Each structure stands twice: as structure tokens, then as C-alpha cells.
């Protein structure tokens, strides 16, 4: 059993595991209980009353966090027709078949997000499994399969995140960094909460959002009070 550090023990003692905190108090507590020397990410987890085995209960999409993410993401654009636009929009890597082959043959993953134009999707299928296992496969639902590569690149740079339900009906995302102001963290929280609420499937009856918690990297989980 891994040894719990003194800092983490102290952080755990500050959190009442039986209590649901208001989001304002939860954000303050997350900042207080961050135990890392680096600027930790604040994660959020939604436990939803959905059955992802049914297509109409699979929740997936993307949004631009109003307060940003605090992360710099390397963007790969795969295209035959929008090379100039993607290059001028300052994507980190731009290309077509040659970059698909580089991923396939060299197992190259020097990027964080993939944007693709529709005409190259058939060729992208060759590495679909490779990208899929890393959560990098472009998808129209998240705006990463598009002819408007400039807008896609700009949104990612502004703080675009993707979200989707896992097999247990949970959605994991981020709301920012510990160094963010409480106001920006609250804006980001409200933005993702609103979009999750709007995505409620018609088939779901009763309580939709069962639990919400936030935590910092290596920090304790803090339950958040949410009204359905």
C-alpha cells in the first residue's frame, strides 16, 4: 500500500468526506489542499444517471472554457485543402498523408489535439485505432473535423476542452489551474455544468447528476452540492 505523505494527510483532514460543499467553498478548499510544488490542474468529475450502452445516452461534446485552461496544447492539422490557412493560424504541425504515415510507422505523438478536414478522414482511418486509444481521433461532434480549421485552432488556443461519458456514466474534465482566480474557476465550472445539464437525455428519469466532485492533482476529492 503506497505511503501517504504528510502534506496529503493534512489536506485530507481539511476535507469532510460526508459533506457536499458549495462550489465557492469547494474551490477555496481545492486551492488550500493542493499539495504539489507545481501549478496543479483542478479536475472535475460528474457521476451521471445515464446508461452509455444506449446511443441516445452517450454524452459527448466540446466547449471553450471562458477562463481558459492554463494549458498550452500542440495542435496537429491533417488536411489536403487547408494547409495555408492552418499554417497561418499557427498550428504546430500541418500536413497530410506524410504525417499520417509518420504516426503509423514511427508511433509519433508529439501533439495534444488533432484537427482534420473532411476530405482526409478516409485516409485517417488507417490510424483510427492508434488515435482512438489515446483519445485523439477527430470527431465532428467536438468540432475537430471541420473545413473551418482557423476557427478550430483559435478555439483550442483559447481553452477548448472535450468531454464524454465513460463506460460507468462519468464525465471527467478540468476547470483550470490552482493559480487561477476563484472567479475564473467559477466561470469555468458554471460553463461546463450548464452544458452537462443541457445534454440531459430525454430517456433519463429522476436525478440526472448524481454526484459532482473536484480535486487537484494528487489532492483529495471534494464533493460539490449541485441542484438538478
Automatic annotation (TrEMBL):
SUPFAM superfamilies for the chain: Ribosomal protein L1 (SSF56808)
Molecular function in Gene Ontology: rRNA binding; structural constituent of ribosome; tRNA binding
One Gene Ontology term, aspect cellular component: large ribosomal subunit
One Pfam family it belongs to: Ribosomal_L1
PROSITE patterns xrefs: RIBOSOMAL_L1
Keywords, ordered alphabetically: Repressor, Ribonucleoprotein, Ribosomal protein, RNA-binding, rRNA-binding, Translation regulation, tRNA-binding
GO biological process, one term: regulation of translation
Chloroplast as UniProt keyword: no
InterPro entries the UniProt entry points to: Ribosom_uL1_bac-type (IPR005878), Ribosomal_uL1 (IPR002143), Ribosomal_uL1-like (IPR023674), Ribosomal_uL1/biogenesis (IPR028364), Ribosomal_uL1_3-a/b-sand (IPR016095), Ribosomal_uL1_CS (IPR023673)
Subunit structure as annotated in this protein's UniProt entry: Part of the 50S ribosomal subunit.
Family assignment from sequence similarity: Belongs to the universal ribosomal protein uL1 family.
Main function: Protein L1 is also a translational repressor protein, it controls the translation of the L11 operon by binding to its mRNA.
Protein name listed in UniProt: Large ribosomal subunit protein uL1
Gene: rplA
Amino acid at each position: 500500500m503506497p505511503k501517504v505523505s504528510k502534506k496529503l494527510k493534512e489536506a485530507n483532514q481539511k476535507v469532510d468526506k460526508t459533506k457536499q460543499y458549495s462550489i465557492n467553498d469547494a474551490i477555496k478548499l481545492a486551492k488550500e489542499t493542493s499539495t504539489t510544488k507545481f501549478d496543479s490542474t483542478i479536475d472535475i468529475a460528474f457521476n451521471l444517471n445515464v446508461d452509455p450502452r444506449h446511443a441516445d445516452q452517450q454524452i459527448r461534446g466540446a466547449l471553450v472554457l471562458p477562463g481558459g485552461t492554463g494549458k498550452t496544447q500542440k495542435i496537429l492539422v491533417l488536411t489536403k485543402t487547408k494547409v495555408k490557412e492552418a499554417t497561418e493560424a499557427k498550428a504546430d504541425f500541418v500536413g497530410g498523408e506524410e504525417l499520417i504515415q509518420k504516426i503509423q510507422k514511427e508511433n509519433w505523438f508529439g501533439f495534444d489535439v488533432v484537427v482534420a478536414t473532411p476530405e482526409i478522414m478516409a485516409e485517417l482511418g488507417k490510424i483510427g485505432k492508434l488515435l482512438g486509444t489515446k483519445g485523439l481521433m477527430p470527431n465532428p461532434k467536438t468540432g475537430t473535423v471541420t473545413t473551418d480549421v482557423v476557427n478550430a485552432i483559435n478555439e483550442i488556443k483559447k481553452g477548448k476542452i472535450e468531454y464524454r461519458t465513460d463506460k460507468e456514466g462519468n464525465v471527467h474534465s478540468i476547470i483550470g489551474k490552482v493559480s487561477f482566480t476563484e472567479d475564473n474557476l467559477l466561470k469555468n465550472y458554471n460553463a461546463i455544468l450548464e452544458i452537462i445539464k443541457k445534454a440531459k437525455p430525454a430517456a433519463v428519469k429522476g436525478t440526472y447528476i448524481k454526484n459532482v466532485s473536484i480535486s487537484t492533482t494528487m489532492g483529495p476529492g471534494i464533493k460539490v452540492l449541485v441542484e438538478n
